[in-house]
Design goal:
The structure holds two protein chains of two kinds. Chain A is an alpha/beta fold. Chain A folds into three domains: 17-215, Pyruvate-ferredoxin oxidoreductase, PFOR, domain III (Pyruvate-ferredoxin Oxidoreductase, domain 3); 220-402, Rossmann fold; 497-606, Rossmann fold (3-Layer(aba) Sandwich), CATH 3.40.50. In chain A, the strands form five sheets. Chain A has a seven-stranded mixed β-sheet with strand order 11-10-12-13-15-14-21, sandwiched between helices. In chain A, helix 9 runs parallel beside helix 10 (302-318). Chain B is an alpha/beta fold. Chain B has one domain (22-333): Thiamin diphosphate (ThDP)-binding fold, Pyr/PP domains (Rossmann fold), CATH 3.40.50.970. Chain B is 28% helix and 19% strand. Chain B has eleven helices and 13 strands. Chain B has an eight-stranded mixed β-sheet, sandwiched between helices. Chain B has a three-stranded antiparallel β-sheet with strand order 10-12-11. The chains are: A alpha/beta, B alpha/beta.
Chain lengths: 607, 350
């Protein structure tokens, strides 16, 4: 044992940050660190402390560097925080760079042989003999690599003051029922904790103190929340193709479907799930299943939406329902496939060739991922059109604390579908006739007996009776009705959420930017700048959005892309207010943080 | 109803077991070129559906883009149709056939729509054994864009403009056999009797039927230097066998010819009677079928008939173990988990 193992003490003598810090863990992809990091996050959560986690992982199966950030916040802020108070460095490849980037005063736990303690004098070092500890605590050498990471959880628990019972509980939860793995990991974790008890003194830089902020909350990621929304919405046909970061949405759905979507009488499945050959075929399955009366969906990311776009234009024009989840990632092209961005705004708003306008839903938190996924199926059938639910990697794949989801009691809205009897009674039915003046026609489903209601759906020009037509007046009639239908959607999509401080200055954001905007708004207000925050939740823009735009002197549009795509949609929709919209952007692949927003808005204000 | 005794009674049109006349199976008037082989195929779809007493409202017709893809408008108006995008008909058939497994699915495609732009979807639809009759109306040419080569055009064949095809052709039939298709047939639009028998057998089959129909293009590919002209195909069509199809309901009444005739029985009890013309041809022998097709192609022949049959493979809805009733009409009571179940899920996430 080296004598250098003195107690790490904070450098600079700052006061203790209780339940208010960030930890960054640097490991190697594929080393089992995800389990260790989730256990650490869960243990803090179980201590009643509000916590969020961000996994910054490479596009790689194993071997490349990966970082995981855990943020605890007594105030409930859950956005990424760019600065970290504790670093756990397990990856020799990145350790020196991680040290160079560290914030002054940070506590650094590292693998002893890396010998990092001479690199900077303004950090507090804790070298840990991980190899020795894992050899002593784990009898199976081939498992050493996997359980080694659990040792830093024990060391961190000791330094942060986390109750080891909570850590053990978190391990059992994470490894659901795998008795041997639970025992191995708990033993490794205790080895780290015991070593730290014996060799390290207390530190008072950052601490976890038991609180009651997480009582009754769940931890979930957005893809699972969307999958649950689809499960409760009764999706019956799923066509999909794997793509990061959207795959886990369908994969989680498959797990739930195994349990909840079997006919109790026969044991047969009430949902068809097919992994298709590509995204084009997935889109075909979704739209044709919707056309035939099923509730259908797919889950994809930007490159997949590009491939689907021809079909989505067809779906819009022939009026076939279907739900398209886009879990956005950093584009264009392959881009940074494991990093987050909101750069498919314009793509999803107007996806496809020709004049197309789509209903888009932007959930901003886990409850909305669940609820909007549920609502999307109603909207698809009500409006007989493709519906996009647009999230991103940050919402979709990161862990978020959330209130448990409320049961969606509202009955399914299956839209304007005529059954055999209605078809027999209706006079002069036309598939694309606007009977109610809302732009939404009545449809019939294939297989309906009685000899009425059959028609040929075609992507070529058609009239109100679904007959082939190249007549200008028929074409205009259909296209103008489609626009009317889109207008009708304004009364059916979720309206915005406001967080007003009483100001004529607006901050407008959507989706995963929400936590960073809330934090930024508070920081700005502390500095004397009050703002009214509108969180947009859907396209088309509703009447409340109209009023907000008219009323504000300036609107800072916060979004995670380079070109200010949402601001562009606003300038296009409200040309007379075009100069009001100022873009606040963040697009480096990391989730947006409050400081970036504060700095940009402050710079605009000082102009 | 009133009847007049003075007028001469016109003979009633014959009806099938469902009481429908052939007129009940027609569609809109074709807008294809006069004499187009595709119209002959349409006529046989109408005949076969009528004779097989298919319920028209259960028929769904799918297509992509091209001359062939226009034809779903020309038959069985009682059924729904979906004319989609180029090369993507198979995925449209996949989704709808899963949404409602009681539908009778007919896909009409062309050689361009299936063997070029749509090759990926063709291949995977066949692999999945989706329940559909997949008809390729094969003229070796892109008619709708005025006469470019397709991927089934024979190497060395000529376009009307004189252009020569430098590339080997793709054969949908051997490809389908390779992919595990359990019903592979080839016919010729100028051989209505054979086409009719194959289509009736196809209606009784449960999975994917791949039916390649050589269908000369009268406008762009019916000249002497084309290997898909009427004259060329007539001269080079070698039917494998005389086919007779006997529906399950007729099996007891029909005297099945014995001797050199082979009988293949379908899961529902229907039978195809195959009287071999081609010596020793065995349509249940996969490798033998591949060999025979390749040998005939080498000789420049079109071997037509039921090339390969294996009626035992489960179609996609069975593979997925779907409920018997259409997914499309399942009620909220069966689809939506209960509040207690949501609570259980939420507890597991705490």
């Amino acid at each position: 044992m080296t004598a250098a193992l003195a107690a790490p003490s904070p450098v600079g003598g700052a006061k203790t940050r209780i339940n208010d810090f960030s930890i960054q863990v640097a490991t190697v992809n594929g080393s089992g660190s995800q389990t260790a990091n989730t256990v650490l996050l869960r243990a803090i959560f179980q201590m009643g402390v509000f916590v969020s986690g961000k996994n910054l992982f490479p596009s790689n199966i194993a071997g490349l560097p990966t970082w995981f950030t855990i943020r605890a916040s007594a105030k409930g802020y859950v956005a990424r925080k760019a600065s970290n108070e504790m670093l756990i460095l397990m990856n020799p490849e990145t350790a020196k760079e991680d040290i160079a980037k560290a914030d002054p005063g940070a506590l650094v736990i590292y693998d002893e042989p890396l010998q990092l303690d001479k690199l900077r004098s303004d950090l507090a070092y804790t070298p840990v003999p991980f190899q020795k500890l894992v050899t002593a605590s784990c009898p199976e050498p081939k498992l050493h690599k996997l359980v080694k990471n659990m040792i830093y959880v024990g060391v961190a628990a000791r330094l942060l003051g986390i109750d080891m019972e909570e850590v053990k509980k978190a391990i059992a939860k994470q490894l659901k029922g795998k008795t041997k793995a639970i025992e191995l990991n708990q033993t490794a974790c205790m080895a780290g904790y015991d070593w730290a008890m014996e060799n390290l003194e207390d530190q008072d830089h950052i601490k976890v103190v038991r609180d009651n902020k997480t009582q009754g909350l769940i931890i979930i990621d957005g893809n699972e929340a969307c999958a649950l929304g689809a499960l409760f919405a009764g999706v019956t046909v799923v066509g999909w193709y794997p793509i990061t970061p959207a795959s886990s949405l369908v994969e989680t759905f498959i797990e739930y479907a195994e349990e909840y979507r079997k006919d109790p009488k026969t044991g047969k499945s009430t949902v068809a799930i097919v992994q298709m050959e590509d995204e084009l075929a997935s889109a075909g399955v979704v739209l044709s299943a919707g056309w035939a009366g099923a509730r259908s969906m797919t889950s994809t990311a930007g490159p997949g939406v590009s491939l689907m776009s021809e079909f989505i234009g067809l779906g819009y024009y022939v009026e076939a329902p279907g739900v398209f989840f886009n879990v956005a990632r950093t584009g264009p092209s392959t881009g940074l496939p494991t990093r987050t961005q909101q750069s498919d705004v314009e793509l999803c708003a107007k996806c496809s060739h020709g004049d197309t306008l789509h209903v888009n839903l932007y959930p901003g938190n886990m409850e909305e991922c669940f609820q909007f996924a549920y609502d999307a199926f109603d909207l698809a059938e009500r409006f007989q059109t493709p519906i996009f639910v647009v999230t991103d990697l940050d919402l979709g794949m990161q862990n978020w604390a959330s209130k448990p989801f409320a049961y969606p009691a509202k009955a399914y809205d299956r839209g304007k579908v005529l059954n055999q009897q209605q078809l027999a009674e209706v006079k002069d039915w036309g598939r694309y006739k606007d009977v109610d003046g809302d732009g939404i026609p009545y449809r019939s489903l294939p297989g309906t007996p009685g000899g009425k209601g059959a028609y040929l759906t075609r992507g070529s020009g058609h009239n109100a009776y679904a007959q082939y037509s190249e007549k200008p007046e028929d074409y205009i009639e259909v296209m103008d009705r489609l626009k009317r239908k889109y207008e009708t959607a304004k009364d059916h999509v979720p309206g915005p959420v406001f967080r007003n401080q009483g100001s004529d200055k607006g901050v407008l954001a959507f989706g995963s930017s929400d936590p960073a905007v809330i934090e930024a708004q508070d920081i700005l207000a502390e500095g004397g700048l009050k703002t009214d925050y509108l969180r947009l939740r859907a396209l088309p823009f509703t009447a409340e959005v109209d009023a907000y735009v008219k009323e504000k002197k300036v609107v800072y549009v916060v979004e995670q892309n380079r070109d200010g795509q949402m601001a562009n949609l606003f300038r296009e929709t409200y040309p007379e207010h075009a100069t009001k919209f100022k873009s606040v952007l963040h697009y480096d692949g990391h989730a947006i943080d409050a400081k970036s927003i504060v700095d940009q808005i402050t710079a605009f204000e000082q102009k | 109803m009133t009847t007049t005794t003075s007028a001469t009674p016109t003979p009633a049109a014959p009806t099938n077991k469902l009481g429908f006349t052939k007129q009940d199976y027609v569609g809109s008037k074709s807008t294809l070129c006069a004499g187009c082989g595709h119209d002959s195929i349409t006529a046989q779809i109408i005949n076969a559906a009528f004779e097989s007493s298919i319920e028209g409202h259960r028929v769904t017709k799918y297509s992509g883009i091209g001359c062939s893809s226009k034809t779903p408008a020309y038959f069985i108006n009682q059924g729904w149709g979906f004319n989609s995008v180029h090369g993507r008909m198979p995925s449209i058939a996949t989704g709808a056939s899963l949404a409602n497994r009681t539908l009778i699915n007919i896909g009409v495609s062309g050689d361009g729509d299936s063997m070029s732009i749509g090759m990926g979807q063709f291949v995977h639809a066949v692999r999945r054994n989706i329940p559909m009759i997949y008809i390729i109306e094969d003229n070796g040419v892109y008619g709708l864009t005025k006469g470019q080569f397709s991927a089934t055009a024979d190497k060395g064949s000529h376009l009307k403009t004189g252009a020569v095809n430098d590339f080997p052709s793709i054969d949908p039939c051997t490809l389908a056999i390779e992919l595990g298709c359990g019903f592979v047939a080839r016919s010729f639009s100028g051989n209505p009797k054979q086409l009719n028998a194959i289509l009736k057998a196809a209606f009784a089959y449960q999975g994917t039927v791949v039916l390649d129909v050589i269908s000369p293009c009268v406008t762009f590919n019916n000249h002497d230097a084309s290997t898909r002209s009427y004259k060329h195909v007539k001269d080079h069509d070698f039917p494998l066998h005389d086919l007779g199809f006997i529906q399950y309901s007729e099996v007891e009444e029909v005297d099945i010819p014995a001797g050199e005739t082979e009988i293949v029985t379908f899961p529902d009890g229907s039978k195809v009677a195959i009287k071999a013309l081609h010596e020793g041809y065995e349509p249940t022998d996969r490798f033998g079928a591949m060999k025979a097709i390749h040998e005939s192609m080498a000789k420049g022949e079109f071997l037509t008939g039921l090339l390969y049959i294996n009626p035992t493979q489960p179609p996609l809805p069975e593979v997925l173990n779907l409920v018997d009733e259409p997914l499309a009409t399942l009620g909220e009571d069966l689809l939506k988990p209960s509040p207690a179940e949501l609570d259980k899920i939420m507890q597991s996430l705490m």
